[in-house]
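Renewal narrative, Specific Aim 1. Our central claim is that a sequence can be written position by position from structural information alone. The example that follows is taken directly from our test logs and has not been curated for this report. It begins with the structure tokens describing the chain, in the order in which they were read.
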């Protein structure tokens, strides 16, 4: 997949995906949870789920994602969640194509 095809596949959801990943990453990184969000108590443990979205939006489309980048890079090399996510660092980390 090249940059053009990434842009074709993500434009409808790029902004929502960027914000969703950023929200989760922010709290995974230790930001205090406000009381309005789940009563101020979250169960953390996102796991290796950000590599693909981060690569598509940041590396391919050039969208800045500070919290997601920090979290994703701290998770590397990403392993598996024993469901459907497995070793995405190998296939997606820094892959501009």
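The sequence written for that structure reads:
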């Amino acid at each position: 997949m090249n940059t053009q095809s990434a842009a074709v596949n993500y434009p409808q959801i790029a902004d929502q995906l960027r914000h969703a990943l950023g929200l989760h990453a922010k709290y995974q990184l230790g930001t205090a949870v406000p009381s309005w969000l789940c009563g101020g108590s979250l169960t953390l443990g996102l796991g290796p789920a950000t590599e693909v979205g981060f690569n598509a939006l940041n590396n391919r489309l050039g969208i800045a994602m500070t919290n997601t980048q920090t979290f994703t890079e701290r998770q590397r090399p990403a392993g598996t969640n024993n469901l459907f996510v497995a070793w995405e660092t190998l296939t997606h980390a820094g892959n501009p194509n």
